[in-house]
Amino acid sequence: MASERPVTLTAEGKADLERELHHLRTVKLPDVTARIQELSMDGDVSDNSEYEDTKEELIQLEARIREIENLLRRVRVIAPGKSDGVVKLGSRVTIVDETGQAETWILVSPEEANTLQGKISTESPVGAALLDKRVGDSVVVRAPGGETSFTIEKVE
């Protein structure tokens, strides 16, 4: 059974999920359904791998739709607040590693995390280490690849 705990998202994260759900329902689902109908009209589908692959795609698509609907039912949007300098959910944090290389991350819930968009989970090693820290604080992140030290340069 799916978890019924509240899901905390940024307003942007909620909007992203709503856009994805709309796209899945209005574009992807009709497309996959139409392909299944076309393939089933081609005759015997018992040995048709394309038909089986498309059915599997439909199953995964419907599962993703249900997952997003479930998340949106439980969503709690965090209000953007004025930064008090403490790293918390929704903070944009710039950190500097031992070599002087800076990275900027937005701390989000696991459901919204996407490293390609610069969003890391508060449950990730880096995110968890940064929570409740302030500008100037140093943190040691223990990850499978080893330990890394960061200094917090900016919190927005």
Automatic annotation (TrEMBL):
Residues 51-78 form a coiled coil. Keywords: Coiled coil, DNA-binding, Elongation factor, Protein biosynthesis, Transcription, Transcription regulation. Residues 83-156 form the Transcription elongation factor GreA/GreB C-terminal domain. It comes from the Bacteria. Residues 8-77 form the Transcription elongation factor GreA/GreB N-terminal domain. GO terms for biological process: DNA-templated transcription elongation; regulation of DNA-templated transcription elongation. InterPro entries: GreA/GreB_C_sf, TF_GreA/GreB_CS, Tscrpt_elong_fac_GreA/B, Tscrpt_elong_fac_GreA/B_C, Tscrpt_elong_fac_GreA/B_fam, Tscrpt_elong_fac_GreA/B_N, Tscrpt_elong_fac_GreA/B_N_sf. One of its GO terms (molecular function) is RNA polymerase binding. Pfam families: GreA_GreB, GreA_GreB_N. The keyword Oxidoreductase does not apply. HAMAP family: GreA_GreB (MF_00105). Belongs to the GreA/GreB family. Necessary for efficient RNA polymerase transcription elongation past template-encoded arresting sites. The arresting sites in DNA have the property of trapping a certain fraction of elongating RNA polymerases that pass through, resulting in locked ternary complexes. Cleavage of the nascent transcript by cleavage factors such as GreA or GreB allows the resumption of elongation from the new 3'terminus. GreA releases sequences of 2 to 3 nucleotides. This is Transcription elongation factor GreA. It comes from Sphaerobacter thermophilus (strain ATCC 49802 / DSM 20745 / KCCM 41009 / NCIMB 13125 / S 6022). The gene is greA.
